[in-house]
Amino acid sequence: MRIISSLEVSAVEQFNNMSLVGSWIFVLTIGCILKNSPLGYISIPLMKSAGRTTLDNLQRERRSTVELQNYDNLQYTGEISVGTPPQPFTVLFDSGSSILWIPAAACVGGCEMHSMFDAQSSSTYNHSSKTVSIQYISGGVQGVAAYDNVQFGGMTVSNQYFLLANTTSRMFENLFADGVLGLSPGYKECHADCSILKSMKEQNLIESEVFSFNVCKEKSVAELYIGDHELGEEKSKTTLPLMNNTNSWLFELSKVTVGDGIVCSRSCEAIVDTGTSLILGPSEEVKKLHELIGCKVTYYNENSIPGIHPSCRTRGKLQNVTFDTGEHSFVLTPDMYLSDCTADHCFIGILEHLNNFGSLGYSTWIFGDLIISEYVTTFDAANRSVTFTDC
């Protein structure tokens, strides 16, 4: 979830109202505003097929698990429980935000069709006098700061901070989850105890604040590991340090190119965000990227959704899009960035944003599931780095 100050988005908000590859597109960049002021890891299978690792087997291996669902490589959700006795919720695991939120029993807006938390029924629930507002690109959430036990398939995080939402934007009606669980490396927008990773480390549930998304699209099963975990066989990998003074999974890019054309060659950077489905970039750079792509781009839905005629794809005219870090190149072929092709058009999964989420004066790109599904991505808050391992 990316930090923003308003909801002014053109392409993104229009995309949120469209079906793409049979699913909904979400952009969950956020800012969180406070007003008034035995060691192991969790193994979370992201099920793509009927096959599964059973909870009993994982417990024998000193693991704990909660089952996650994958929606067309666009949203990854799983089950948690909150309170005593535990109340179940489905949450979206989001590397772009630092806070857990779920709907309150009296929540209104886009939460009314989702599971809601009955605070009065939990003997371990506590709340503060602070009200909290979270702003995403695609909508907002407001509520009160609260504390209660949070369970991940056998492990309990005691007295965990979360936002109990009283109102949410209507766009959350289309979310395949009741709430969002944030996994960002920083918590400047709220405070230290809002990080569930930090709580798990302090309560000796995990050894370090590390998690890995293994959502490789060609595999039938995807997984999320929270805590240190060996990925098994050695494969090519690239570790990128986070930029200084950032609360996001933000690293530097040396350049962005389309074929031989330059889109950005200095002051470029990228945020890795599991809560975003596609790729977002600054308006002027994205327009230039579309101009260089090798085919005339048409904008649908009030000039906001970029697309091309499918004949360009069949004639092989389209160029690769490359995000270069100096150590590694993220190369997107036309088959990777095109989707929802019909007889009339193919949509382009690289959209513009109107907000600056990163460093002042930088060209900031957001890497969503379009890139994440090509790698096993490890987020290391302790060493402030992101590692991309080939699938």
Tell me the radius of gyration. Answer: 20 Å
- Which runs of at least 5 residues are low in confidence (pLDDT < 50)? 1-26, 29-39, 47-67
What's the N-to-C terminus distance? Answer: 24 Å
Reported by name, the CATH topology of the largest domain is Cathepsin D, subunit A, domain 1
* Spatial order of strands in the largest sheet: 6-7-12-8-11-10
Q: What do the pLDDT scores average to?
A: 78
Largest sheet: 6 strands, mixed, barrel
Number of domains: 2
SS strand fraction: 35-45%
Assembly state: single chain
CATH architecture type of the largest domain = Beta Barrel
Helical content (DSSP H or I, runs of 4+): 10-25%
Return the structural class.
Answer: mainly beta
Give the strand tally: 30
Number of helices: 8
Reading off the top of the CATH hierarchy, the class of the largest domain is best stated as Mainly Beta
